[in-house]
Amino acid sequence: MSILVINAGSSSIKYSLYESASLRLIDHGLIEEIRDHHEGFEVMRTQLLVHGIDITQINAIGHRVVHGGERFHEPALVDDDLLAEITALIPLAPLHNPANIEGIIAARTIAPNVPNFAIFDTAFHQSMPPHAYRYPLPNDWYESYHVRRYGFHGTSHHYVALQASDILQKPLDEINLITFHIGNGVSACAIERGKSIDTSMGMTPLEGLMMGTRCGSIDPSIIAYMVHQSGMSIEAVDTILNKKSGLFAIAGTNDLRSVINAKNRGDENAILALDMFAYRLRKQLGEYMAVLRGVDAIVFTGGIGEHSPLIHEMVCEGLEHMGIILDPNKNCHGEIQIHDDESSVALLVIATDEERQIATYVKEHLKR
């Protein structure tokens, strides 16, 4: 039997099918430019039937849901009440939760007898203490409007933490980690004894580190300043902060390979963009070293984190006094463990697999 993992976007459905016992990947695909999610599921059902898989006969379906608010600390079985709760969270994730909900509705319609589970990007970070997730803002903003830090990429951070535990041959609840998910979106997580105690993204994915097209943390007064000085609307400024900032704003592209190529040609904007990008990662590393008061390993994951030796080098440069010593040879040859033998902190490059982690969550819940 099998477990189907769904990531429903506004006009696309990404799916992965796993054998439920071993979690061996059976099939995967991406359906794009769909008019509605029911249509997308019908296309997916036809594609799976070619491989002899009847979606109505599988064990379970796991859905990626971006925002679970404070309510959801772990995966949850979908019923009408749960759908209503996810719907109520739409104001916190207006670009993502609606599509996630449509995917769940389509799945329940096409395969009504198959249990569906919602897996939340925010869930792993719900172990953060109040002093980490609260903003220094009026209590009413938190109590009435739920203004707090939630964090994202939780499934990825949890997955690579589990993999790091295996590599280090230590139980997860006995190690401290700093994990960097570095792709077009970028986030860091401080993991103490297997639990997230802080993360760089906040109420939305805009807070934190410099990203592909997102600015990360800035002086919030810049927003009011630009509205008043330029005449732009709040919506226009928000669009720029999310879609036209970060690497894109400084280097003219959010493709790191293109930025590195431009840097090698001596492009000053590309050099500045990379320096800014790595500098903020290094600052975050130092902050979490202080928060954790002892770190077993630093983990790089995500498209950039897994494939850019230059970023590893720039982030770790000059941190020997903190026990962080990169081995250039291991780094350039794509090894998993890229630290020098003298380093007191392990440096690991681990490929993330959020879909497999979602399938793992579902498998664990099916056993209950």
What does this structure look like?
- The chain is globular.
- The two termini are 17 Å apart.
- Strand 1 and strand 2 form a beta hairpin.
- By secondary structure, it is an alpha/beta fold.
- The protein is built from 15 helices and 11 strands.
- Helix 10 (256-264) crosses helix 11 and helix 11 (268-292) packs across helix 13.
- It folds into 2 domains: 2-120, Nucleotidyltransferase, domain 5 (2-Layer Sandwich); 169-349, ATPase, nucleotide binding domain (Nucleotidyltransferase, domain 5, 2-Layer Sandwich), CATH 3.30.420.
- Helices cover 42% and strands 17% of the residues.
User: Which sequence of SSEs, written as H and E, runs from N to C?
Assistant: EEEHEEHHEHHHEEEHHHHHEHHHEH
Say what the CATH topology of the largest domain is. Answer: Nucleotidyltransferase, domain 5
The value of Rg in angstroms is: 21 Å
Structural class: alpha/beta
Shape: globular
Q: What's the pLDDT, averaged over the residues?
A: 96
Unreliable spans: none
Number of domains: 2
Strand order of the largest sheet: 3-2-1-4-6-5
Tell me about the largest β-sheet. 6 strands, mixed
Termini separation (Å)?
17 Å
Helix count? 15
